[in-house]
Amino acid sequence: MSAILPPAERLWYRHPIDRVEGTWIALALLWCLIMFFMMVGWHIWGRQNLSTETYRTTPDKFMASVQAMVDKYTVRTETDEKTPVVAPPPGSDVYLLARLWAYYPILELEVGKTYRLHLSAMDYNHGFSLQPANINIQMVPGFEHVVTITPNHSGTYSVVCNEYCGIGHHKMVGRIYIKK
Ligand code: CUA
Q: Is the pLDDT assigned to residue 41 strictly greater than 80?
């Protein structure tokens, strides 16, 4: 039986598998396995797949950490909503929350300094897609992802939500400033 032509008989599964078909199945399986083990590999070689630590939290607890940082280190406000721009000291814990449909606050970090960036969501799943660096991390309610980051380029970065989160998803963007 050919792999291209339709089966001649109704009980097609009784037929021995064609060599071409078998080869394709074997190739597909092999590729699946390669991709599967690359998940480990990307943490070593892939620059946009940061290894994160994950901890349980609650929206209230996380909000308290965010607000404590905002109260202490706000340097100015921006946008119509008066979003605080927060410049925490190098080496400190930095918090960014996602909620319908905004990120809070705006962070201002320094090149070459290391920070512990904590990410969590208040309501639903949101995405943390840092552009143009193309770093992707999920922001999940009830959990905080912690990434150790050392920005290597100055500039204005956008945080884009890449998890569909409802009617305002397309306008959910945040900002991170990296100063020299
Ligand atoms: Cu938040 Cu999509």
A: yes
Question: Residue holding tokens 């900002």?
Answer: 175
- What tokens does 35 get? 């991709």
Predicted TM-score of the model (pTM): 0.76
Ligand 1 atom with minimal separation from the 162 CA? 2
* Residue whose entry in the numeric block shows the structure tokens 């890449």: 162
pLDDT tens-place string over residues 49-76: 677 889 999 999 999 999 999 999 988 8
Structure tokens at 141: 């309610």
Q: Given phi > 0 = left and psi -120 to 50 = alpha, else beta, which region is 61?
A: alpha
pLDDT of 177 strictly over 60: yes
Report the DSSP beta bridge partners of residue 41: none
* Cα–chain center distance at 18: 43
* Span from the CA of 39 to the centroid of ligand 1 (angstroms): 24
Res. 4 pLDDT band, cuts 50 70 90: confident
**Which pair of tokens denotes residue 117?**
């960036």
The domains of the chain, with CATH numbers, are 12-44 (no CATH), 53-179 (2.60.40.420)
> In sequence order, which ranges of the chain are alpha helices (DSSP H)?
19-45, 59-73
- Please list every protein residue whose CB sits less than 6 Å from any atom of ligand 1: 98, 101, 126, 161, 163-165, 169, 172
Q: Which of 98, 104, 116, 101 is CA-nearest to residue 77?
A: 104
